[in-house]
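Co-fold these.
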Amino acid sequence: MREILYRLKDRYHLGTPTFQRTDLCFVTVRRDEIRAILTELRDMEGFTHLTFLTAVDWIEEQLFQLTYMVNNREANLSLGLRVLLDREDATGDTIHDLWPTAATYQRELREMFGIKFPGSPRVDEEFILEGWTDLPPYRRDFDTLAYSQQTYNDRPGRVTHDPKTHMQKTLYPSYPKGAK
Amino acid sequence: MVSPLLILAAGLGAAFLLGLLRDSSERMAFYLTVIALGFMSFVGLSWTVSLALGEAQPVEIYTAGARPPFAINLRMGLPEAALTSVVTLTGLLSAVFMRRDLMRLGRRAMAVLMVLIMALSGLIMTRDLFNLFVFIELIVIASAGLVLLSQDTRALGAGFKYLIVSQVISILLLVGVIFTYHANGSLNIDDIAATPMGFTGASLAIFLVLIALVLELKPFPANGWALDIYEAAHPGFSALFSAASGSAALFAVLKLFEAAGPDWAPLATGIGLVTFVGANILALAQDHDRRLLGYSSVGQIGLVLMVVGYGYDWDAGLYYVAGGLLISHAIAKAGLFWLSGLVKARKLSDWAALRQNPALVVAFATFIAMLTGLPPFPAFYAKWTLVHAMADYGDYPLIAIFLIAALIEAAVLFRWFGMAIKREAIRPLAYNLSHETVVLIAMTAGWALSFVWGAISGLDNLVTLVPLLFALLFLPLDILPARIKNVIAIAGLVLWFFLSKDGLDPLRLIFLTIMVLGGALLLLASFHAKGRRMGFYTPAMLMFAGMALLVTAETSFQFFAAWEFLTVGSYFLILRGHDSEPHALSYITFSLGGAFALLAGFAVASEGQFVIPLANLSEVAPEIAPYVFVLLAIGFLTKTAIMGLHIWLPGAHAEAETDVSPMVSGILLKAGLFGLFVLLMEMGRQELYGVDLTVLLVWLGAISAFIGAVLAAFQEDAKRLLAYSSISQMGYAVFGLALMNHLGWLLAMMFAINHFVYKSMLFLAVGGVKERTHTKLMYKMGGLITLMPYSFVSVLVGIIAMSGVPPLSGFGGRWIFYNAIMSTDLRLPMILIFMAGPVGFLYLFRLIHTIFLGQPKDELRKVKEAPFWIILPQMIFVAFLIAFAALPGMVLQRVDGYIGTLFGDRPLVWTGRIIDSQYGTWNPVAIWGVIIVVFVTVLLLLVWMNHNAQHVKQFNIVFSAERPFKPQTTHFAWNFFAPYRKAMGFLEMPVSTSFWTGVSNALHGTAEFSRKFYTGNGQTYAVQLMLFVVAVYLISMGASS
Amino acid sequence: MKDVDDKFRKTDTEVPLREELRPRKVTTPDGQEIDIDPLRDYFCEAKPKVHPKAYSKIVEDFYNWARANSLWILGFGTGCGAIEMRPLMTPRFDAYRYGIQWRPTPRQANLLVISGYLSVKTLKRAIRAYEQMPQPKYVMGLGSCTINGGMYWDSYNTIKRLDDYLPVDMYVAGCMPRPEALLHGFMELKRVIREGKGEGANKYAENFDQYKANQKAVIKDWDMPDYNW
Amino acid sequence: MTAFPNFEWVQIAYALLTLFIVINYGMVMTAVVRKIGARVGGRYGIPVWQNYVDLLKNIALRSKISHGVMYYLGPVFRLTGGVGLLMFVPTIYGSEWHQNFSYAGDLILALYFVFFGTLGMALGAGESGHPHSAIGVSRGLAQVTMAELPLALGVYALSLQYGTLDITKIVAAQQGSIFNWTLFTNPLATVAAMVAFVGTMMRSPFDVAMAPQEIPIGPPTEYHSSYLALMQTNRVLFPVAKTVIYMNLFFGGATSWAEFAIKVFCLYMISVVIGVVHPRFRVEQSIRFFLKWGLPLGVLAILTV
Amino acid sequence: MSLVQLSLATGFLLILLGLYGALTNRDIIRMIVSFTIADTGVNVVLVAVGYLPGREAPILDTIPVAEAASRITDPVPQALVLTAIVIGLGVTALMLAYAYRLFRARGSLDISEFTELKW
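Predicted complex below.
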C-alpha cells in the first residue's frame, strides 16, 4: 500500500494518508488529478473495482467531499480517494468512462446532494425520488424533520422521549435511588 | 396479279429516282420513298392474301428469259409473299418512324433504305446462290449506311465492326459459293437440292455457304457486333435490322438448309439451340433496353433456326411453326424497337415513362406476350406444336432445354415489364404521334395475326373465345369510371356462369361457382375503388376468363391455353400491388415454369397427336404415364404453392391490392387444385421407380400443411401471414386429394370451398384494415375491435372456421379429414398433418390479437371502419359460413354422390341433417343447438350478475402497480411467438428460398461473367467469328463421323 | 415538541406533468391531425361509486361470511413487513386453512396489506393497487410505521399516517409484528367483515375528495388519473 | 326435429343433472386434491368447501369493470366450452340418463371442442389489453401445439384399433374385463395420450401459460368478480370433462357415478402427483419434451396398431 | 503443279494473308487494305475454279457462237468475279468512308479505341 502511495506521490499531489487498517487507507487528492490517479490505479495498480462513490457535506467549510473507494481484489487493498469540491455550484468530474457503474453513483449524488457531473449518462433524470422539488435532501441545509413536519400529518398522542432517561425509567425505575 | 418482280423494280426505281431529285426537296423525296414502300407492301400483301386464299398459285420468275442454271430465277410462294410483306411493311413503318432523321440526312439515306428493302425482298425471293450473295452484300452496304442515321456517335464504331465481320462472312460465302458451283455445276438452289451432298469432308463448300449464312443470323456467341448495332443504331433501323433483316436472312438459311439436305439439319438445330439458350442467359444481366432487345432478337432467331433444323421435313408444319415464331418475333421486336424510340433514356427502368400512355403499355404487354409465346399469339401455337413434335420424336432433353431457355427469356422480359410498371420514370415520354401510330399498328398486326394463326391452327382459335373478348372489351372501356366497369364485370361473370353451368359435373360446377360467382362476389369489394382504375379490369377479367375456360376445358390445348390466360391475367393483377415488382416477377417465373411443365406433360401424353381430350389422359401408355403424371403434377403444384415451389406466393399475395389478394388467394389457388383433381381423376395412382406418386403427394401436402403453418406463425405482416396460411391450407387439400379415396376427395372439396370463403374474407378484412391504417405490420396496430367491429367479426368467424373449432364449417373439414384418414394406410404423413392443426391456432390467434385486441395506438385512435364495399362481401361470407356450417349438405351432398360414382362407394350416409360415416357421426344442427343454448344461458347468467360493470379504457389495467407508459410498449405483439420460435425456429430455415436464390444467382453470375466475352473490339469479334466457324466445323465433323 | 429549526421552509413548486401524459398532436395514417389527451383518452375518468349492501340482511350476512372466509391478499410487499408474511404460508402458520391466499393481481384480491413503512413513491403504487381492487376491499396496516411513522417519524420521504391516504380497516401494531400477530389481525379483520363493518371501500368513495387531497398533498408529481379503475 | 333423434325434453333435465353432479364433484375433488397436497406438506390445508366460498365471494363482489365486448364474452366462451364438452361426451356408459347430447357428434367433435373455450378465453384476455395476458396466451398456445399432438396420435391409433370414432362404441368395446381397457390392449397409445393429458392440465411442470407470480397469472390477469366466478366454475368442470374423455377412451369408461368418481379422481391425481414433484418447464423446454417423448410414443402407437 | 492449282494456292494464300492482316493490324486503314487483299484472293480462287485448261475467255466477239460451248471456259465464274469485284469495291469504299468518319470523330484509327459498346 505504501509503495503504491510512494509511486503516486512522485507525480501527484497527495495529502497525508490516513491508514484505518493496513489494507484500507484514505488520502486526499486534488480535483484536477483525480481522473489521472483513478486511471492509473485501475490500469497499473490493479484497483479494478469501484466499490462506491459517495459524498459528505462539510457545510461548515463550505465544501463537499467526494470519496472514491477503489479496491484491488487480488491484493485485497482498498484505497479511498477524497476530493474536496466547492459547495457553491459543486461540480465533479464524471468517471463513467472508467467504471460504468459510476454513472449510477453520480446520478444519485446529483439527486441527493445536487453535485453536478456534466457528461454522465442520464445524470439529470430522477433516480429514486419522484417529483422532488425541494433542496437535495442529503444536503445538510435541508432540514428533514422540519420538512417532514410540514408535509406529513402526525398522529396525535405521539411522544418523544430522551432514549437514555426513558430506558432508564423503563428498565431501572429504582435507579438512582429515590428517583421513583 | 402484279408481278412480284415489281417489288424489286419499285425499290430500285425509287432509289434511282431519288438520286435524280434535288437535295433540297427532302419532303418530296420522303413521299416518294413512302409511296414506293407502300407499293412494295401492297404487292407483297396482295400476293400473300391471294396465295393464302388459294386464288393464286406460286410462281417462278425467270429473268433474262432463260431457265436456270442459265439465268437467275425468283420464286413467289406463300412463305415468300408473307415474309416480303413483313419486310416491306416493316420498311414502310420504319420509314415513317424515321421520318425526321431521313429528312435530315436527305434523299441519299432514303435511297439506301429503298435498296435495303429491295435487297431484303430479293433475298427472300431469289433462288440463285450467287444472287443471294449479291443481295447479302447489298444488305450489308445498305445497313452500314443506315447505321449512320443514328445520332449516337458510338454507332460509327458499331457500323465498322459490322463491316469487318461482313467482310469475313462474304469471303467465306464467296468461297463456299464457288466450290458449290464447282461441285454442282449450278448456282440454282433447287438444282443443288436435287443432288444432295452428304455430310462429309468433301462437302466443305456447302458447309461454308451454310455457315456464312448462319453467321448472318448472329449466332451465339459470334454475335458481339450485332449487339453493338442494336444498341447504337437508330431504333427505326434496329427494328428493320431485327425484324426484316433477321427474317429475310433466316428465310435464306431455310432455303439453303432445305437444299443442303437432311444431313445438315442438326447443324441448324444445334446452333439454334445454343443461341437461344446463350442469348437468353446473357440477357439476364442486361440493363440497357436496346441491347436487351438485341439479345432477345438473337435468341428468337436462334429459336427459329433450331426449328428450321429440327422440322426440315414437316413441310407446311415447318412454315406454321417457324413462321409463327418468326412473325411474332418480327412484329414484337420491331414494335419494341419503335417503342424504344419513344423512351428517352436507355435503362430498362426508364420504360416507366410508358405509363403516361396506357395504349403504349398495352402495346408493350402485347409485344412481350408475343415474344414469350403467350396465348393467343402465334408463337403460342408454334410453341405448342413444336413441343408436341419434339415429344413425338422422343427428344425429351431438347424439350427441357428449350423450355428452360424459354423460361429464362420470359423472366428477362417480365422483369423488364415489371420495371416499366413499377419504377418511376426519370424522363417523360417523347411525344410523337406518328411514332405511336406505328407502334399501335404493329400491335394491331400482332392481334390480327393471332386470329390468322388461330384460324389455321387446327386447334381452337383463342382470339374468338368469348371470355377473352370480354376481357379485351375492358381495354377500350378503361376510360369509364371504375364503378361502371365493375357493374359490367360482375354482370359478365354472372352471365357466363349461367351460360356455362349446364352439363358440368358437380365437382366442376363447384369450381366454376367458386371461380366465377366467387369472383363476382369479390368484385363487390372493387366498388370501393375510386376513379377509373385503369388497367385493373382487363387483367382481372383475363384471369377470370382463364379460370372459366379452365373448368370447361375438354382438351389439353384448351386447358393449357386457359391456364396461360389465368397466369398472365393474375400476373398483371399482382403487379398492380404496392412494392410488388420482385414478387410479381417470381410469380410469373414460377407460374410459367409450372405452365411449361404442364406443356411438356401434355406433349408427352399426346403421343403424336397435337391435342388430346383431357379424358384421354387415362389412356396414356403405362411406360410414360408416370412421367406425364410427374410433369403435370409439378405444374399444378406450382400453382397450389406446395412447399419448395412456394416462394413466389407470400410476396405475391401480400403485396397485391386489397381486393386482388382475395382473388389470387381465394380463387386462383383453386386452379391448381382443380388441375390436380383432373389429373388424379384421369390418371389415378402412378408408380415411378416403385414409388407411388400419390404417396409422394400425400407427403408433400402434409409437409406444406405443417411448415406453411409454422412459417405463418412467425410473420409480422398480416397479409404474409395469410399467404403462408394459404400454403398450409392448400397442403391439406393436396393431402386430401392424394389420399385417393372418397372421403379424401370430399375433404379436398370441403377445403376448396372453405378456403375460398374464409381466406377471401380474411384477406378482405385485413385489406380493409390496411386501407385505414396504411400498414400491414400487425404490431403497429392493436385494439381496433371497437373501431372496426365488422372487420373484427369477420376475422373472428374466419379464424374459428379456419381452425376447425365447432360449430363453424372448418370443423366439418376436420371431421371428414379424420374419417378420410381412417380409411387409408398412410400413417406417417398424418403426424405432420396432426402437428399442423394446432399450429394453425398460433397464427390465427396472432392475427386477431395483434390487430384487433390489445392496445390501440395513438395515431389509430380515430380510425374508421373499413369501407362499406369491402365489408359487404365479408358479411355475405360470414352468413355463408354459418349456413354452410349448419347445413353442409346443401353443397356437399351432391359432390359426395358424384365422388361416389367415381370411386363406386358410399361412405357417408345422409339422413336428414345428420351425416353418418362408417366411423362416426356429425350432426351439425345438434351441435349448433347445444352450443347456442349453453352460450346464451351462460351469457344471460353473466349479464345478470354483471350488468353494472364499469367500462374502462385501455390503460386501466393492473400493471404491477405501475402505469402503462405508452401503447406501443404495452401491446404485446412483435415476435409474438418468441418461445415457440426458440423451440421450433429451426423449421424457419429458408431452404427453398436459398435454393431458388442460388439458382437465380448462378444464372445471373453466369450471365454477368460470360458477357465480358463481348469486348467491344471489332477485331476480337472477327476472331471469335472465325473460331466459331472452325469450332462448328470440327464439332459437326466429329458428330457425323 | 417542535424542537426543530423553524427557519427551514419547504418549497412548494409545481411539478410539471410528465411528458407521456401531456396532450399531444398525432398525425393519423390518413394525414389528419388529431389531439390526444392521454389522461382522458387512455384512462377511465369515472369516480368510484358507493355500492349499497344487498337488499336483504340475510343475504348480506351470507355474503359477508363468504368474504370473511375467502380473504385474498394482494401479493404486494411495501416494506420490511413483507418478510413476515411469507411464513404464513408455511406449515407452521398455514394461513390457507382460514381461506386466506395470495393473489398476484389486484383484480382478484380483496385485502391490501401495507407491510411497513410507505415512502411517497410506494404510496403512489399502493393507491393505484388499492383502487384497482374490486369492492369490497380491505386495507390492513402493519407495524408502527403505518400507524404513526414509527422510526421514520422524521423522514423527508415517508408518510406517517396510512389512514390519511387509504381507509384502513385494521392496524397490527409492532415493529414488526410477528406472524402470530398477523394471524390475529386477520382473525380480527374477519370478525369486522362478518359484522358488516368492513366498508372501507365505500368510505373511500364517500370521502373521495378528501382522500385525494391528502394523497395529492404528498405526491407532488401526481401522474395518474384521479381514480385508477 | 331430425337433427335431434329421439329428443325428449326430459333429456335437458338429465343433462342439467349431469352438469350439476359434475360441477359439485369437481368443486369438492379439486379442494380435496389441494388438501391432500397440503397434508403431504405437513399443512392442514383448505377446508373442502373452500371452492364454494371463493365462488360465492367472487359473485358477491360489488364493483366490476369491463374492457369491452370480447372481454365480457371471454368467460362465456370459456364456460360454454366446458359445459359443451361435457354435453358432447357420454358420461356414464349404459345409462340412458347421462348420455347427454353425445349424438351430436363423435370423438372428433369432443377433441376440437376443447379449443372452443381456449380460443374464446384467449380472445377475451387479449381484449383486456394486458401484456401479461397476451404473453400467457402466446405461451399457452405455443405449448398446446405440441402437447395435443400425442393425444391426436393416440386417438388416431385408438380409433384404428376399434375401427370407430364413436365414444360410446369405444367404451362398449372395453367392457367385460379390466384387461379389455385400452390401457392394456394398447398401452402405447394410452401412454402417449397420458403425456398429452399431463401436458394440458395446466399444472406444473406445464403451467407456464399461467406462470403464477411471473406474469402475474397469465391470461386471467384482468378477470375478477363474476367473470372469475364463471372461470372458476369452468376450472373445476373442464378438467373433469376432459378427464371423462380420457376415461372413456383409455380406461373403460364408467358405468356408475361411483366408478366415475374414482376413476376421474385417480386420473386427475396423476397430473397432480407429477405436478408436485416437478418444477415448471419453460415453453421451449416443454415443447422439446413433447417432441422427444410424446411424439415418438404417439408414432409408435399408430405404427403398431 | 498445274496453273489451276497454282492460282488456287495463290488465291487461298492471299485470303489467309489478308485475313491474318485484318485480324492482327489494329490500324483501320491497314485492316481495310488487308481485306482488299483477301478479296483479291477470293477473286483469284473464283477465276481459278472456273478455269478450264486450254480454253479461251468467254468473249463471243472472237469466238463463233456455235463453237462457244466447247472453246470457252465456264463463263459463270467470270461473271461472278466481275460482280464480286464491283461489290468488293463498294464495300471497300464504304469502309474507307467509315474510316474517315471514325477518324473525324475520335482522331484515331486504332480499332481497339472503339470499344465503348460492349457487354
